Amino acid sequence: MNTIAIIRNSATKSSRRVLIGSSTTSSSFASPHRKCHRTLLTTANHFRIGSAKNFLYLPFSSLFHFRINSRQLGLVIKPDEDFSSIARVAYSFSVRNFSTSVENRVNNTNFERIYVQGGVNLKPHVVERVDEEEKSVPTIEKNSEGFVSVSVVEKAKVEDSEAEREAWRLLKGAVVSYCGNPVGTVAANDPGDKTPLNYDQVFIRDFVPSALAFLLGGESEIVKNFLLHTLQLQSWEKTVDCYSPGQGLMPASFKVRTVALDGDNLEEVLDPDFGESAIGRVAPVDSGLWWIILLRAYGKLTGDYSLQERVDVQTGLKMILNLCLTDGFDMFPSLLVTDGSCMIDRRMGIHGHPLEIQALFYSALRCSREMLAANEGSSNLIRAINNRLSALSFHIREYYWVDMKKINEIYRYKTEEYSMDATNKFNIYPEQIPLWLMDWIPEEGGYLIGNLQPAHMDFRFFTLGNLWSIVSSLGTPRQNEAILNLIEAKWDDLGSHMPLKICYPALDNEEWRIITGSDPKNTPWSYHNGGSWPTLLWQFTLACIKMRRIELAKKAVALAEKRLPIDLWPEYYDTRTGKFIGKQSRLYQTWTISGFLTSKMLLKKPEMASMLFWEEDYELLEICVCALNKSGRRKCSRGAARSQILV
């Protein structure tokens, strides 16, 4: 089997081309039983692969990494070209549905149309997916003429573990079909559960790790169907006491129901829940953000960007953005939400500007900037996105970050400052610093606090928000490294017997009674109040791969792999160290299963992780719409913090 994999790099533009050989008679893609010896030669302007007369052209700048896997394949690289990334071949990528004609990507002019030279009518070729465990090791030699030869040698495949095989069986058993097509996975599929409540529905946030597992496994149909069907639900009008939420809201979940028509005819319908049936009647703010993030991941992992180019998808994307970017009374660039509007969907004192929402909001904005079609109708929206990204990144990095130095600074804050140059801008009282924090935070670590409002800082460590800040580069490189340092240093508190804590520490005693309303499900060290959630593994793995801390991720995944199959894949674990299965935890929880699978697949193919995270965007840091210098006031407050946000 020959496998060609190409990853584009849109950071540069070039008129040079990559030349890929292809013919209907000699191509091994057209006839899998044929063997075809292929050689790669370079000139000043192009690559050439193959022995046929007809070739496909690709822009030279599209080649971030080139991998060809064949028993009889050799690569010859001209020495005056910089092909160190090819010579190392440390990572590999696969391209699905690769054909002789590709539509231009949205907002991207350097990925020109692929065309065929020679006039032969070639049929589209589909490049086979590289097996998950397949690895290749390059052998590099240099001959007397100065050319470098790179031979690719395959390593033996690594078989899935018993836990992985069971997880795949359970995940596929949780698939929900609508009109004969897969559209998602139920939240939990416990055959012994007689009262599933809403766990038999497809949740947008819960489906994300399932979608990634399917995409990494080469199965994209279910993800595409999910994205399109939830988009159709977006326009439904749902009300609570005769009041409708803003246009563009995505549902928290949906269920496939069968309804009777005239006579004996039956019809399947999708019944969405926008929060009007949820406990507390809270709209799911994070659903639309996760939908945008998954839409980008679908394009990155499949190479099919036609989905995000569709008019209905572009319209739905704009509706979500308009809802999030609507002007209000708030003075901050962060999103203002009520309690229970995200993964923590019960009263836990996160109303205001919770970190989890801000990290997802930032990621969704970065995704949207990549996917929005650049035209007159979207120019104002793109400008608003850039401005919000810049303001939000500064706000979170500057005001949410705490480490030993920052805590000492807050400890010495003066209060009641009325000035443009105030140090204590939010009038935080030093007495708010909890006693546990002073002894808990390590010297070399730090984290982003859970919430910030006037005269209030929530010093709890919320895992999802901090992990997604790393993944999206909402934090600075130094901050991202410090977050993982803290998790490693405080592993007994955050990982222990089952990674990872949803938040730390738990609310207890009078604090629990006041903040949760004496919630019997959120008792100390249970559920959202300090419970351990295995689904966070995939986000932890992604963050570790980005920061080159893979061993830390392997430690967490290995710990989970020992317990999850034995414990029947529970939703969450209780107690301070995560020893016990949660007292109300559903078994065979789908995002526990898919989170584990996604983590394992990312560890086997860490190169795929680069498509799911973002690097620092330094251009954003230079954008500032602050008009203080034009109104007679002295300067924008960012100037003093410029060195902080760049490190």
Automatic annotation (TrEMBL):
GO terms for biological process: sucrose catabolic process. Keywords: Carbohydrate metabolism, Glycosidase, Hydrolase. It is an enzyme of class 3 (hydrolase). Its EC number is 3.2.1.26. It catalyses: Hydrolysis of terminal non-reducing beta-D-fructofuranoside residues in beta-D-fructofuranosides. GO terms for molecular function: endo-alpha-N-acetylgalactosaminidase activity; sucrose alpha-glucosidase activity. InterPro entries: 6-hairpin_glycosidase_sf, 6hp_glycosidase-like_sf, Glyco_hydro_100. It comes from the Eukaryota. Gene3D superfamilies: 1.50.10.10. Pfam families: Glyco_hydro_100. GO terms for cellular component: mitochondrion. Signal peptide: none annotated. Belongs to the glycosyl hydrolase 100 family. Invertase that cleaves sucrose into glucose and fructose. This is Alkaline/neutral invertase.
